[in-house]
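Design job #97: recover the sequence.
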């Protein structure tokens, strides 16, 4: 783990990149920002997490770091030990966790629950969609007060630009960096379950409603159809080994959702 704190005092904000080693948009965004030697009005910790996976340009070395929390300092895997180390650093911080995806080109936020702290973190991203993934907890944002952002397709310049835009907006909105920012009122989606299955081709579109009976994935003539209407979230052909992605409901604007 590579970590650098900028600004005076003990940070209560942290920006995390590369929980997944092949998702390097957040690392670029942090690198570009810090290269400007910014003057921050409050302390922020910048963390590049999975250095071994970055070096190998793979998602993880032994196991998915974002499924390894809370981890174990004496764990059997590199990621188990790293998860414990990360959580010890980040436990008391409000966290922005930057990712990229195989599922959707437009950035969106992910949270575990919608308490006031998380609502404020979501607004600070400036993004117009947020997914409450609290139904399937386990990632870093289930262990800290945090918001994750999927910045766009893995390995693209667009994802890097999006990550940098979100990072600067977030630091502006949280009073760390003196820049213009937007505080958004995003559309809220809540994950209800997973669409399980290996090697399916996803034939729908994320955030576009699938009607009951509609086919959303197929594999050699075998089709997955919706029992109930839902909105696909993080669904893709390549994204996961064991599932197509998540099924969500749409709840309305954040300001209207209790
Ligand atoms: Zn990721």
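Job complete. Output follows.
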């Amino acid at each position: 783990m590579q970590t650098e704190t900028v600004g005076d005092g003990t940070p209560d904000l942290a920006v995390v990149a590369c929980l997944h080693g092949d998702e390097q948009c957040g690392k670029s965004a942090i690198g570009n920002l810090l290269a400007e030697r910014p003057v921050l009005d409050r302390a922020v910790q910048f963390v590049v997490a999975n250095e071994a996976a970055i070096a190998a340009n793979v998602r993880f070395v032994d196991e998915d770091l974002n499924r390894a929390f809370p981890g174990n300092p004496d764990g059997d895997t590199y990621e188990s030990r790293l998860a414990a180390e990360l959580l010890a650093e980040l436990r008391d911080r409000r966290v922005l966790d930057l990712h990229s995806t195989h599922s959707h080109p437009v950035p969106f936020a992910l949270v575990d629950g919608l308490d006031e702290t998380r609502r404020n973190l979501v607004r600070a991203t400036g993004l117009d969609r947020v997914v409450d993934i609290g139904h399937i907890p386990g990632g870093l944002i289930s262990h800290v007060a945090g918001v994750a952002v999927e910045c766009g397709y893995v390995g693209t310049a667009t994802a890097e630009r999006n990550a940098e835009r979100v990072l600067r907006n977030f630091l502006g909105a949280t009073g760390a960096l003196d820049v213009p920012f937007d505080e958004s009122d995003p559309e809220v989606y809540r994950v209800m379950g997973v669409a399980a299955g290996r090697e399916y081709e996803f034939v729908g579109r994320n955030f576009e409603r699938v009607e009951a009976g509609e086919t959303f994935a197929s594999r050699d003539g075998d089709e997955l159809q919706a029992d109930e209407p839902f909105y696909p979230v993080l669904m893709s052909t390549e994204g996961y080994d064991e599932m197509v992605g998540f099924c969500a409901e749409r709840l309305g604007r954040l300001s209207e959702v209790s």
